[in-house]
Design goal:
Elements: E1 24-28, E2 36-43, E3 46-58, H1 66-70, E4 80-92, E5 95-105, E6 114-118, E7 123-126, H2 156-159, H3 164-187, H4 197-219, E8 221-233, E9 240-249, E10 253-255, E11 263-271, H5 282-294, E12 296-310, E13 313-331, E14 344-348, E15 353-358
Antiparallel strand pairs: 1-6, 2-5, 3-4, 3-8, 6-7, 7-14, 9-10, 9-11, 11-12, 12-13, 14-15
Helix pairs in contact: 3-4
Length: 359
Amino acid sequence: MKRVKYVILLLFILAITGLHAQKTTRVNAIKANDYGVIYSLPKTSFEITLLVKKSTYQRGDFYPYAKGYLGVEDPITENSVRYTLEDITLINKGIVDKNSSFMVEFRARSYEPYLYLREDGAIVTVNAEPEPETSSEMMMPAGERSSVNPRRFLSQETLMAGSTAKQAELVARQIFDLRRSRTDILTGEAESMPPDGNAYKVVMDEIDMQERALTELFAGSIESEYFMKSYTIIPDENDMEKVVIARFSEKLGPVDAGNLAGEPLYLSLRNKTPKVELQLSERDRKRLGDKFRQGLVYNIPGKADVTLEYRNRELIGMEVDVVQYGSQDVLTKKMFENMKQPIKVLFYPELGAIKQIIQ
């Protein structure tokens, strides 16, 4: 693996957004909806994205003569495909929890309060414009491909040669002629020098391209391309200990967790938030229920340690916030009844936690 990185953003430490930011919609609390707006809170999900490089090795037609004619010590001798894990990210997607949908009610005939919601209904702000979201999209590197067919540069004599060995000999001579021409131009000893800088570049680029293409007939060629593979994990309230989320094979690339052809990628998640049981009387329990029904409910995520391991090596290890390990609280309805200075609330959309309260 050439490099492994992880994304650290927000209170969650992992990410402020998913790979693709969702659009938001303003919903006003007006008479038509009885001054109430329905919203949802998210729960934590992990999206693990692998950046994979696929390398295709193609042997050249003259590979048996690579060392003898050009001094190439390690030409490609077999056609093959190899996959390498180049990069990995771990991101909190914050998916809507179907069991955490609420209605917040505002006082009638007050100022016109409003909420901004994501497309999936998750709350973003109250009485405030959403902040610009920062994309955490992984960049896709450009691959490498051979765009030139080396046989287009072969001379008539080479094409009519009676054996592969003779063809290899003639192509090797052609390569040395190209190298000699480049040296003559560089030293100013060429019989016909390029007239200006642009012509010089064109000539040198053409020489380099032909030499590279013809040399591949001996050394072989490597073409590469990149792609991404993502896996989504939704934890519950329990710890996760070395759960196989996927497997990776140098011959097959990323494969499913059940495919033993690859080596496992392990995810562990350990809750660090002690669970507190509240001892409430029946009266206090009723008051708390009324408070939650009328106010603005929000998440208080719990703390956890997450690790991602591959080949006995820890690729990612950090403390994170996990909604499923936390609790919920509520902003009372009275907080939103000041008509002169409406309270503003900004949320972490991926967590459903309060980011800022502005009064």
